[in-house]
């Protein structure tokens, strides 16, 4: 993982993914100085999710897609898009949960808990089932964090029963879609590629 994290970018997508990481870190600093601690905290929570795809050695396009998705999800909270744009919350839950579930599958493959995409033991049904489960679990944890934030930190966080169920349902569907993607599209870059 260290080698993947420290390697130089080679493609336009890899440079773009690194630019998103820089924007993510800078946005935490900007929010800490000129916005509220809640906004800075939300953006800081996104930072590990911006770094993980690089450490996993994701292909440039997948890395960029995860980074943009996570940053948009965090920024949408800061700019109050979840309340001001009808349905935006559901779109972001679908896409972001899917991105997190696919990344989660790669983490489990790196830990040798599940077969990697290039392994002879890999079966397409495995990521379809596992990503869906991961997505539903992540959705449940996220909704608990929202509840705790509203209960113990600030009542500015919007939480209702209908919102929670809708978010989890769309997150589960996004994770299912991500599982299908992992089943058919290689997300990690090929190891041992020629260095330029």
Automatic annotation (TrEMBL):
UniProtKB keywords: Membrane, Transmembrane, Transmembrane helix
One Pfam short name: DUF2238
InterPro entries attached to this UniProt entry: YjdF-like
TM regions (residue ranges): 12-34, 91-114, 126-145, 165-187
Superkingdom of origin organism: Bacteria
The UniProt record lists the keyword Transferase: no
Listed name of the protein: DUF2238 domain-containing protein
């Amino acid at each position: 993982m260290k080698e993947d994290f420290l390697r130089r970018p080679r493609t336009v997508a890899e440079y773009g993914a690194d630019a998103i990481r820089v924007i993510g870190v800078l946005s935490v600093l900007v929010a800490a100085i000129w916005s509220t601690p809640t906004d800075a905290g939300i953006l800081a929570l996104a930072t590990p999710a911006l770094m993980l795809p690089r450490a996993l050695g994701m292909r440039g396009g997948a890395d960029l897609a995860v980074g943009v998705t996570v940053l948009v999800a965090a920024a949408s909270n800061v700019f109050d898009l979840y309340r001001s744009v009808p349905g935006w919350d559901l779109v972001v839950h679908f896409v972001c949960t899917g991105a997190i579930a696919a990344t989660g599958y790669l983490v489990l493959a790196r830990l040798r808990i599940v077969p990697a995409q290039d392994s002879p033991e890999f079966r397409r049904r495995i990521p379809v089932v596992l990503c869906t489960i991961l997505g539903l679990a992540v959705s449940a944890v996220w909704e608990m964090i929202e509840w705790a934030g509203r209960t113990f930190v600030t009542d500015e966080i919007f939480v209702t029963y209908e919102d929670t169920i809708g978010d989890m349902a769309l997150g589960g569907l996004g994770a299912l879609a991500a599982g299908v993607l992992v089943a058919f599209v290689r997300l990690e870059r090929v190891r041992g590629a020629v260095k330029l």
